[in-house]
Design a protein that fits this description.
Its main location: membrane. The chain is 76% helix and 3% strand. It is mainly alpha-helical.
Length: 316
């Protein structure tokens, strides 16, 4: 095929899931419910951190950033996924597909950086408690959050530019429920090996580096906790980072399976879809519950908010 003068496709067909009406409707209901729970749960965390003076701490500032990311990370994918479950053929325009790809990776990569910053925050709080308040000032927190967002912005920008330059002249069917890099490269014309190599290098730089920094932080954290003489002190110290460690384990486990492979086009898209559902639908729902159930300060703030709301309703 002559790729120099080809007419680029104007829209893609998202293959999504096999269409079995009864199963699809049930799956639609489950995904929609989880999506609403994710929006409500993460939105509630942002609200209580914003209005509660006792939560005006670096840890909760970064937690509200994480919740904000989760809302938009899942919103970039789930609405189109829901449409795919009900419609026989779901289409997405070319530039809409590129935008979805960009924002999905922007929020995802930024989430890795925010989680890394959160592990650094926990390291300072547990290993250097006397200097914590002087180091983690509000200005430093803003700078770290901004650095995480800028890191996400630039890490995916060049990949999107390279994908935009590829000729899409043949098949326009994407074997996924959203525009992911692997299925897109699979239908692109021309040589995509150099883009795959660059994508793999970015994945290594972002995922492995952030994971390594997180692991190093927790090595110091755990070694410090084990030196605390009382078991109650150890339990209290570990409870402040247990939620973060749980979220990190879930997120990195899923993402390492999908993206950290040299070839994106030869991977099993059926398995990728299942892991992507976990990443984009299930994990954003779990995060608010994990941080709420295992964090006494957040639970207390939620209880005060509900009491205030109940009192307001009873006075009306």
């Amino acid at each position: 095929m002559d790729l120099t003068n080809c007419s680029r496709v104007e829209k893609f067909i998202l293959l999504g899931f096999p269409h079995v009406w009864g199963i699809n409707v049930s799956f639609f209901a489950v995904v929609f419910l989880l999506y609403m729970l994710s929006i409500a749960g993460n939105g509630l965390i942002i609200i209580i951190v914003r209005i509660n003076s006792q939560l005006q701490k670096p840890m909760y500032f970064f937690l509200s950033n994480l919740s904000f990311l989760e809302i938009w990370y899942t919103t970039a994918v789930v609405p189109k996924m829901l449409a795919n479950l009900l419609l026989v053929k779901t289409t997405i325009c070319f530039y809409c597909c590129m935008a979805q790809l960009y924002f999905h990776f922007l929020f995802g990569v930024t989430e890795f950086f925010i989680l890394t910053v959160m592990s650094f925050d926990r390291y300072l709080a547990i290993c250097n408690p006397l200097r914590y308040s002087t180091i983690m000032t509000f200005g430093v927190c803003l700078q770290l959050a901004l650095a995480a967002w800028l890191g996400g912005f630039f890490s995916i920008l060049f990949q999107i530019i390279m994908v935009l330059r590829l000729p899409f002249c043949g098949s326009n069917t994407i074997n996924h429920f959203y525009c992911d890099i692997g299925p897109l490269l699979n239908i692109a014309g021309g040589d995509t090996h150099w883009i795959e190599a660059f994508n793999f290098l970015i994945a290594v730089a972002v995922i492995v580096t952030s994971l390594l920094l997180t692991v190093i932080s927790y090595i110091f954290i755990i070694s410090t906790i084990l030196r605390i003489p009382s078991s109650s002190g150890q339990k209290k110290a570990f409870s402040t980072c247990a939620s973060h460690l749980t979220v990190v384990s879930i997120l990195y486990g899923a993402v390492l399976f999908v993206y950290l492979r040299p070839s994106a086009t030869n991977s099993s898209f059926r398995h990728n879809k299942a892991i992507s559902v976990l990443n984009t639908v299930v994990t954003p729902v779990l995060n608010p519950f994990i941080y709420t159930i295992r964090n006494n300060e957040v639970k207390a703030a939620l209880w005060k908010l509900f009491q205030r709301k109940a009192l307001t309703l009873s006075n009306e």
